[in-house]
């Protein structure tokens, strides 16, 4: 087990280094870092100064270490548009993204998985076919279109929920959270639902096919032959086995959440890091884009590592691998 | 003694629909009747498609849809088992009737511990809970001859061997002291040496706990050693039933007689298996002619056709960050020769290295040490590419798994002649007729040459494989367990075919098998292997009648004894 | 040689077995074919060429469906802010969306299968490099990667196609490699090697045809994924240029007018987009079900 974790750690470490090398290469060698990090107001002299400051006259590997070193210390540069350190900007907006993503994930798991298991067990029933059809439709509707429909129905026609902004927040642990206020929760509702719909559909499909595969295994029939009641079989045998693929995919899907949050936050004007990214792209605030790239990469490497380790906990065959 | 039978089945019919309307059905069981008395061990024997597993599932209501029980009676202690609700079945299963699966590795849930799975059965069928249940679990494992029972409770199935897992499955089956156990091929998935002891455990449990057993199997030897009474099934229909020794030695039905005649014997070597062979209606003359045209240049010397000198194979897993380099010696310094026209057999259990030797001879694996001399030349030293190719093509192979030895996307005929076409050894237009000729030679229909492999049965696919080897007009054929995956009657037919072909075309065979009886029937000389080493190398009669090595003796002892038909 | 009649007959039979008895899947297939036909015939059947700036008249802007345009024709689905007939815009947008998705999926598929096969057959460092690259790509959600690529390298139809190709190839490569690896264990490959059949023939005639089925099954999914991804990127403004709108961009343009009651500009492109993706997904699901081994063996019993 320890060996497995160490191996995974090793792989993750290599992945992180390779990713940072790719970004570095993309930025400093293929792209022109001076252009990347300067804007229209820079004069020629400013640019030369910047070049020296960035250490572009130094050998390549020294540049990389300076760059990596800066990152490790949290220095990601200054945003052009906001004129503040990029890291501060990102950290400020992170809670908003986390809020709706977490809520969406919880909703997705809570609704999607039971629906999926149900459809897997009662494969040929009417209910199962209807559920599956709906999730296919949900899965086929692009994120932004769902958002538009949600706004039209709930905000414009029914006027139940607000369509933009974050609303009022309260603070906890020194961070402002929207879910701590009723008004904030109302504002969270639509964006979270928007993200959740896709999650529900994915989880339902996954749980359904996973369930069908497991039901087909011989140990399920043998469990019945032992005289175990059906409910107990589902609770014990099915659930334990289905956790493995679900946890794996869920972990990897956190990435999808972050990705789609870009769209959702933009449409609902939700001030999270997704909106920050898009605004920065449109306003050509390159330091922010670059920092986002790096931070997200590291986050993914980390998440993959955690998923791998959890996998080992759940599947004893992996745990005991030589 | 109570005269009501424990289980009585009358005129049971189970069907599978073949189309969505249900108008066309396959009868998995057709009007089957049987009877089991308390404490009896009865056998149900048959080849694939006989429906033997279906009976077991039908009794316990475990038929997989779309299979349907359409008519008949199943009575257990007088009570009908047909049409019971799932809840009623649940109280019956495990409690009164136990079930043992063929493959213990798939019958146990890989993510739950052994303890959890045994205790689960205890709690479902008895009143014991908690500490009591755990102690009882240990007792059960001990009764099933599981060593270190308490430790095993914490382990997972993949950490234990197949034989051990099967014993655990037995323990689970007897947990609630059922009156009847249905054992569906309980030893088929295990190694030969383990089979014997596992079977003994099953018999012991039956006698100790007074449990009746329905033993379902295709292995006649197993039936001979364990059952009092046996039913023979074929394609869902009843063929014959009687006390074991009568059915096995003096069968009344043709099919049974043919089946028993197909079982290879250890006692003596027969010329052919005495089967009711159907006459081959195809014209085989062109095929015969083609093969007899084979060049026989270096024939009449007394030099061996194949010589293996000090052959070794070591598999190395390269070192990585977290583990040192690991090496596994599959073959250690093996020496033997094969004369022209001989059939040499290599027998051993899985992992003995027998297949690896063949793969090295054929060039599929690199040789770590030693050399292979074929037709007087070492392949590694031949530089001329034409000679090299001729050398290679003269050595062919018949593979073990009929379902993976043919290219699924090429027709039978293409599979047979593709190599010849590629090497320009034959014209495209002649290739088609050659394929048909060869197919007729191995007992298949000419017009089937255009069909894809999935249209053929296992035995037929093996024949296509034989035709493919013959297409190159080889001198030497390596037979890698060619019949292990086949039913016993199909095996007998195929082995007869091989013997015929060998005689007609003076082929030299190196025949590998784990089945001693098959080796006894096929080979002139036998090499016994264990863990990569050749332990004994002698003539057929010497090995089987006067084995010198202790391991050979133990292998012979482990084989289930089947006397064969009385006429022998 | 290749018997085309026989191949056609087998194809027809296979299609029949996959789709018969599944009306939804058939509807999806028909729908998809209709969309493709509309896209192909757009230049001839669209009432107006929405990309031709000379034809547009801003006085025709923001008219509801069934209004009459300045030149006397009827606009069936209304017009957008610059006077584009929505019906025509949707047809051309469909054309663009399908074009981008088809090219990206096909090229991504070819690259992925080639690399996957190479990795399986060569092994060693070639395999390691290719598989690490796959791992790298897979650990990133496609949209994000595309977004960032377009942010750094700029937008345009060709750049989107490149970004989408990067999204498609990795999963194909991984699947091809694992499929090929398991085929390589099979004995018919050994039989070919014994008969001294050259490696390239083994790859093309033995390995490839038998490994590719599971990968082909995933292709419709990739297609619909590309359509959705391109739409999202265009909606966000980092996709196709504004002079040649795809369905996503049309929806984005119309978004600003939703709240003022001009619903037709977003709605029609949206409906077409969802329908298109749904049709493909429904067919893709059916193909996947058909190929699934456990369902298959239950039918064989």
Could you outline the blueprint of secondary structure elements for this entry?
The complex is a heterotrimer of chains A (322), B (568) and C (301).
Chain A: H1 2-30, H2 33-37, H3 44-53, H4 60-72, H5 86-121, H6 126-140, H7 143-157, E1 170-172, E2 175-177, H8 182-215, H9 218-225, H10 230-267, H11 273-282, H12 286-314, H13 316-319
Antiparallel strand pairs in A: 1-2
Helix pairs in contact in A: 1-12, 5-6, 5-8, 5-10, 6-8, 7-8, 7-10, 8-10, 10-11, 10-12, 11-12
Chain B: E1 7-17, E2 25-36, E3 41-45, H1 52-59, E4 68-76, E5 79-80, H2 86-92, E6 97-100, H3 104-107, H4 114-125, H5 130-143, H6 149-152, H7 162-174, E7 180-184, H8 192-209, E8 212-217, H9 220-226, E9 229-234, E10 237-243, H10 244-249, H11 254-262, H12 285-292, E11 306-317, E12 326-338, E13 343-347, H13 354-362, E14 369-374, E15 377-378, H14 385-393, E16 395-398, H15 412-422, H16 428-441, H17 458-471, E17 476-480, H18 488-505, E18 508-513, H19 516-522, E19 525-530, E20 533-539, H20 540-545, H21 550-558
Parallel strand pairs in B: 3-8, 3-9, 6-7, 7-8, 13-18, 13-19, 16-17, 17-18
Antiparallel strand pairs in B: 1-2, 1-4, 4-5, 9-10, 11-12, 11-14, 14-15, 19-20
Helix pairs in contact in B: 4-5, 4-7, 5-7, 7-8, 11-18, 12-16, 15-16, 15-17, 16-17
Chain C: H1 4-19, H2 23-45, E1 67-68, E2 74-75, H3 86-122, H4 124-138, H5 142-153, H6 157-184, H7 187-194, H8 199-211, H9 213-235, H10 247-258, H11 264-291, H12 293-300
Antiparallel strand pairs in C: 1-2
Defining traits:
heterotrimer; A: mainly alpha; 76% helix; B: 568 residues; alpha/beta; Rossmann fold; 6-stranded mixed β-sheet; 21 helices; globular
How would you describe what is shown here?
The complex is a heterotrimer of chains A (322), B (568) and C (301). Chain A is mainly alpha-helical. Chain A has a two-stranded antiparallel sheet with strand order 1-2. Chain A has helices spanning 2-30, 33-37, 44-53, 60-72, 86-121, 126-140, 143-157, 182-215, 218-225, 230-267, 273-282, 286-314, 316-319, and strands spanning 170-172, 175-177. In chain A, helix 10 (230-267) runs parallel beside helix 11 (273-282). The radius of gyration of chain A is 24 Å and the shape is globular. Chain B folds into 2 domains: 7-262, Rossmann fold, CATH 3.40.50; 339-362 and 383-558, P-loop containing nucleotide triphosphate hydrolases (Rossmann fold, 3-Layer(aba) Sandwich). Helix content of chain B is 36%, strand content 23%. Chain C is mostly helical and 301 residues long. Chain C has one domain (78-300): Orthogonal Bundle (MetI-like fold). Chain C contains 12 helices and 2 strands, in the order H-H-E-E-H-H-H-H-H-H-H-H-H-H. Chain C has helices spanning 4-19, 23-45, 86-122, 124-138, 142-153, 157-184, 187-194, 199-211, 213-235, 247-258, 264-291, 293-300, and strands at residues 67-68, 74-75. In chain C, strand 1 (67-68) and strand 2 (74-75) form a beta hairpin. In chain C, helix 9 (213-235) packs parallel to helix 10 and helix 9 (213-235) runs antiparallel to helix 11. Classes of the chains: A mainly alpha (322), B alpha/beta (568), C mainly alpha (301). Chain A binds chain C through residues 15, 18-19, 26, 31, 133, 136-137, 139-145, 148, 151-152, 156, 212-213, 216, 252, 255-256, 258-260, 262-263, 266-267, 277-278, 281-282, 289, 292-293, 296-297, 300-301, 304, and chain C through 24, 132, 135-136, 139-144, 147-148, 151-152, 224, 228, 231-232, 235-238, 248, 251, 255, 258-259, 266, 270, 273-274, 277-278, 280-282, 285, 294, 298.
């Amino acid at each position: 087990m320890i060996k497995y974790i160490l191996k995974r750690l090793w792989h993750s470490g290599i992945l992180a280094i390779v990713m940072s090398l790719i970004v570095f290469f993309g930025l400093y060698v293929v792209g022109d870092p001076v252009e990347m990090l300067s804007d229209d107001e820079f004069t020629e002299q400013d640019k030369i100064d910047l070049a020296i400051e960035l250490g572009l006259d130094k050998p390549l590997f020294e540049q990389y270490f300076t760059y990596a070193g800066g990152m490790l210390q949290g220095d990601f540069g200054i945003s052009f548009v906001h004129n503040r350190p990029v890291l501060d900007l990102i950290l400020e907006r992170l809670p908003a993204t986390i809020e709706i993503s977490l809520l969406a994930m919880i909703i997705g798991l809570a609704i999607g998985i039971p629906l999926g298991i149900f459809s897997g067990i009662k494969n040929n029933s009417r209910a199962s076919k209807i559920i599956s059809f709906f999730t296919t439709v949900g899965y086929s509707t692009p994120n932004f279109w769902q958002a538009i429909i949600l706004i039209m129905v709930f905000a414009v026609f029914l006027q139940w929920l607000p369509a933009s902004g974050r609303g009022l927040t309260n603070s906890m642990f020194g961070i402002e959270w929207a879910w701590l206020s009723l008004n904030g929760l109302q504002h969270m509702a639509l964006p979270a639902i928007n993200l959740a719909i896709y999650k529900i559909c994915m989880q339902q499909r996954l749980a359904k096919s996973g369930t069908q595969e497991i039901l087909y295994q011989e140990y399920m029939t043998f469990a019945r032959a032992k005289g175990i009641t059906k409910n107990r079989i589902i609770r014990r045998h099915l659930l334990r086995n289905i956790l493995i693929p679900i946890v794996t995919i869920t972990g990897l899907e956190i990435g999808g959440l972050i990705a789609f949050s870009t769209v959702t936050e933009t449409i609902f004007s939700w001030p999270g890091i997704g909106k920050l990214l898009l605004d920065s792209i449109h306003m050509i605030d390159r330091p922010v884009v670059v920092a986002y790239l790096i931070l997200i990469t590291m986050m993914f490497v980390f998440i993959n590592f955690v998923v791998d380790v959890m996998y080992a906990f759940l599947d004893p065959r992996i745990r005991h691998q030589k | 003694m109570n005269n009501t039978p424990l289980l009585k089945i009358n005129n049971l019919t189970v069907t599978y629909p073949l189309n969505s309307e249900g108008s066309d059905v396959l009868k998995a069981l057709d009007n089957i009747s049987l009877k089991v008395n308390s404490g009896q061990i009865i056998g149900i024997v048959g080849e694939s498609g006989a429906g033997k597993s279906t009976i077991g599932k039908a009794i316990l209501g475990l038929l997989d849809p779309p299979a349907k029980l359409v008519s008949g009676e199943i009575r257990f202690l007088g009570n009908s088992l047909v049409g019971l609700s799932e809840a009623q079945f649940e109280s019956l299963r495990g409690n009164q009737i136990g079930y043992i699966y063929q493959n213990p590795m798939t019958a146990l849930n890989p993510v739950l511990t052994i303890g959890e799975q045994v205790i689960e059965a205890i709690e479902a069928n008895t009143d014991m809970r908690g500490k009591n249940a755990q102690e009882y679990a240990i007792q059960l494992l001990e009764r099933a001859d599981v060593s270190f029972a308490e430790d095993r409770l914490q382990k997972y199935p993949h950490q234990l061997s197949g034989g051990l897992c099967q014993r655990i499955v037995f323990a689970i089956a007897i947990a609630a002291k059922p009156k009847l156990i249905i054992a569906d091929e309980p030893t088929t998935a295990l190694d030969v040496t383990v089979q014997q002891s596992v079977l003994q455990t099953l018999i012991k449990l039956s006698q100790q706990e007074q449990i009746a057993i329905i033993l379902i199997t295709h292995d006649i030897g197993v039936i001979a050693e364990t059952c009092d009474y046996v039913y023979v099934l074929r394609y869902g229909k009843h063929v014959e039933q009687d006390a074991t020794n009568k059915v096995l030695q003096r069968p009344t039905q043709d099919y049974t007689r043919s089946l028993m005649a197909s079982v290879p014997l250890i006692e003596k070597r027969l010329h052919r298996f005495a089967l009711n062979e159907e006459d081959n209606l195809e014209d085989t003359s062109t095929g015969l002619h083609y093969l007899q045209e084979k060049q026989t240049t270096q024939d009449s010397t007394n030099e061996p056709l194949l010589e293996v000198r000090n052959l070794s194979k070591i598999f190395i897993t390269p070192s990585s960050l977290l583990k040192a380099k690991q090496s596994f010696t599959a073959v250690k310094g093996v020496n033997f020769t094969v004369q022209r026209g001989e059939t040499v057999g290599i027998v051993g259990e899985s992992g003995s290295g027998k297949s690896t030797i063949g793969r090295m001879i054929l060039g599929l694996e690199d040789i770590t040490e030693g050399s292979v001399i074929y037709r007087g030349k070492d392949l590694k030293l031949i530089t001329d590419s034409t000679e090299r190719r001729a050398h290679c093509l003269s050595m062919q192979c018949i593979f073990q798994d009929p379902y993976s030895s043919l290219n699924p996307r090429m027709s039978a005929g293409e599979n047979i002649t593709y190599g010849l076409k590629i090497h320009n050894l034959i014209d495209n237009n002649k290739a088609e007729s050659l394929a048909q000729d060869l197919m007729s030679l191995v007992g298949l229909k000419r017009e089937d040459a255009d069909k894809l492999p999935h249209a053929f049965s296992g035995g037929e696919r093996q024949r296509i494989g034989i035709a493919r080897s013959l297409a190159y007009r080889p001198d030497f054929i390596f037979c890698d367990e060619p019949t292990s995956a086949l039913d016993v009657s199909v095996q007998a037919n195929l082995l007869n075919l091989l013997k015929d072909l060998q005689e007609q075309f003076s082929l030299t065979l190196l025949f590998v098998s784990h089945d001693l009886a098959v080796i006894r029937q096929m080979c002139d000389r036998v090499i016994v292997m264990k863990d990569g080493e050749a332990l004994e190398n002698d003539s057929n009669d010497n090995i089987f009648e006067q084995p010198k090595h202790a391991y050979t003796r133990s292998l012979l002892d482990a084989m289930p004894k089947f006397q064969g038909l009385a006429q022998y | 040689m290749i018997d085309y009649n026989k191949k056609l007959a087998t194809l027809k039979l296979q299609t029949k077995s996959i789709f018969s008895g599944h009306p939804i899947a058939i509807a999806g297939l028909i729908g998809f074919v209709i969309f493709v036909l509309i896209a192909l015939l757009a230049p001839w059947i669209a009432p107006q060429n929405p990309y031709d700036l000379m034809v547009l008249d801003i006085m025709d802007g923001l008219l509801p469906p069934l209004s009459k345009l300045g030149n006397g024709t009827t606009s069936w689905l209304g017009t957008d802010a610059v006077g584009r007939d929505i019906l025509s815009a949707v047809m051309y947008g469909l054309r663009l969306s399908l074009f981008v998705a088809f090219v990206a999926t096909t090229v991504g598929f070819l690259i992925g299968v080639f690399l996957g096969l190479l990795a399986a057959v060569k092994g060693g460092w070639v395999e390691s490099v290719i598989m690490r690259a796959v791992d790298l790509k897979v650990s990133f959600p496609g949209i994000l990667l595309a977004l960032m690529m377009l942010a750094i390298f700029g937008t345009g139809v060709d750049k989107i196609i490149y970004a989408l190709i990067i999204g498609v190839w990795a999963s194909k490569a991984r699947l091809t490699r694992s499929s090929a690896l398991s085929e390589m264990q099979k004995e018919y490959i050994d039989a070919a090697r014994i008969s001294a059949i050259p490696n390239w023939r083994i790859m093309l005639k033995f390995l490839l045809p038998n490994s590719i089925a599971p990968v082909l099954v995933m292709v419709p999914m990739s297609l619909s994924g590309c359509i959705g991804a391109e739409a999202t990127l265009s909606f966000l403004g980092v996709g196709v240029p504004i002079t040649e709108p795809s369905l996503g961009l049309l929806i984005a343009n119309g978004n600003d007018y939703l709240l003022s009651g001009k619903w037709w500009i977003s709605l029609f492109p949206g409906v077409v987009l969802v329908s298109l993706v749904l049709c493909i997904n429904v067919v893709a699901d059916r193909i996947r079900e058909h190929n699934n081994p456990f369902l298959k063996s239950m039918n064989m019993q």
